[in-house]
Amino acid sequence: MGDKIRSKNHVMSYGVPCVPGIAEPGLSDEALIEAAPGVGFPLLIKPSAGGGGKGMHIVERLEDMAATLLTARRVAASAFGDDTLFLERLIQSPRHIEVQVLADNHGNVIHLGERECSLQRRHQKVIEEAPSPLLESLANGAEVRARIGEAACQAARSVRYSGAGTVEFLVSDQDPEHFFFMEMNTRLQVEHPVTEMVTGVDLVEWQVRIAAGEVLTVAQSDVVLEGHAVEARVYAEVPERGFMPSIGEIMMLRERASNDPHVRVDSAMLTGLSVSGDYDPMLAKVIAWGPDRKAALDTLDHALGDYTLLGVHTNVEYLRLLVNDDDVRAGRLDTGLIERKLDGMEFRQVSDVELVAAAMLDRQVLAPAGTAAPWNAADGWRVGAPAPWKTTVGRPDGGLATVGLTVDAQGFTARVDSGVEHSAVMRPGPSGHAVLVLDGVEHPFTHGSPSSELGTRELWLGSDGWSCRLEILDREARLQRILAASSAKKAPRIPKSGLPCREPSSPFRCTTATTWKRATSSSQ
To answer: What percent of the chain has pLDDT over 70?
Structure first.
């Protein structure tokens, strides 16, 4: 089942429907170009040895086939060590629906319903749910579920499969009663928890028991789908920068704020763990169950709001925007929805709240409460009116802000650059937690900071699943940043792609929205 061409031809011989196309081993570019009109445009060029959507290419016109085939073969050979390609008709408005199967060594095969995995970026899943909202919306949804489930079981029987596996299908949103086999994953999928939550069947346990030779005692009639479950994948990436991967060290982690039995977090993250760009960017999975789809999405949204990870950029804010999108809430899903929605999403930006919080935290570090020596007190005392305590804060976009804090009877008066004055009070909480009261409004947040170096102190702030990286700069670092920005405007920019995302003050400097190059020593 690992070879896409062989698996498609094999299951077709057992009556499992497949996407129209041409899937034969050893086809040359010339043969594929000749066959393309018969497949129909638009079509997909897919690597036979591929998986996870990697190496797929959409072709709209016959005249683009030759150049795209060259690229597709190069990518397939590099990624999979096999440049064999095949063609499939592109299904319009496709839904990615997969079926979980269990099979033992005694001839028993069952399915445990379907999962919808249509919310993807770059053909990789982001949010998965069970059951499928598409099938749930159909008057004959139970009949379609039984048919697609039997097709999955037939695919498993055809290879005498044993264990837990997943059979993936494409379903047209315009004609949902027809589904087409894509591939079979002969393993547990990342998203298997949503099936466990709606069926109550422990798939990991059954995989081990089947491997030990036990008989599968769960019959098809025992499988009942109760409620709805949704899973969100937490990735180390920056969605607003084209899902660019992020790297760094985890300095604060709180993955669950409550013991809600309807929330599950699968993770291997630890405080102090280094996240590099050498591996898949997935950090954790947050799964939520509810009696219906709306309740499950609400519970997931709340759980994501409680998820805190500082030190590495994550997609948690993006996940919350996605689960609250009108089309997602209505179940109007397809595999291209994420790309269409991304540009219109309003990501939270750093405001005076975060800048004032950063300045007040900096003041606490440099002049902690209880300082006896008058020269160490950060109250701005002088003859006459007190001077504001000024802090230079580096923004995520590379810009600078100057925050002035003046002691008053209630706490502080804060001003960012030449903006309006704010009343500000900081209430410290447990380690890494605090509440900023700005103009009478409470803003709880978490914070973390590694050791400072070269006149710059890194500071991370987070709240409601959102986080940002700021910098506290001394005078020398501030001057260097200003000079570097001035030089950057005059110097030619040399594009270099593929580097993980760091902030402008790190060893990698931003040259465009998605392009980074190593900074010279003068910019550090």
So the answer is: 88
Contact 40, 60 (CB under 8 A): no
Q: Which amino acid is at 137?
A: S
Angle between helical axes of 293-305 and 316-323 (0-180°, round to 10): 160
Q: How far apart are the first and last CA of the chain?
A: 51
**113-131 tens-digit pLDDT:** 999 999 999 889 999 999 9
CATH of the domain at 399: 3.30.700
d(CA 112, CA 289): 16
Q: Letter for the amino acid at 112? A: L
**Which is nearest to 359 in space by CA: 470, 480, 481, 476?**
470
- Residue 358, both tokens: 């950063």
pTM, entire model: 0.83
Cβ atoms of 96 and 120 within 8 Å: the answer is yes
What is the rounded distance in angstroms from the CA atom of residue 414 to the CA atom of residue 434?
17
Q: Percent of the chain having pLDDT more than 90?
A: 72
Q: Which residue has the higher pLDDT, 2 or 434?
A: 434
Q: What is the pLDDT of residue 380?
A: 62
Confidence (pLDDT) at 522:
37
**Which residue range is the domain that position 380 belongs to?**
352-477
Most confident residue range from 20-24, 437-441, 515-519: 437-441
Is 464 a member of any domain?
yes
What mean pLDDT value characterizes the chain?
Answer: 89
The SS3 assignment for 73 reads: helix
Please give the full DSSP string across 231-293, using - where no structure is assigned.
Answer: EEEEESEEGGGTSEEB-EE--EEE--SS--TTEEEEE---TT-EE-SSS--EEEEEEEEESSH
Q: What is the dihedral of CA 432, 435, 438, 440, to 10 degrees?
A: 180
- Domain of 37, CATH number, reads 3.30.1490.20
Tokens 């036979």, located at residue: 48
Instruction: Specify the pLDDT at position 518.
Output: 39
3-state secondary structure of 522: helix
Rounded to 10°, the helix 203-211/192-199 angle is 100
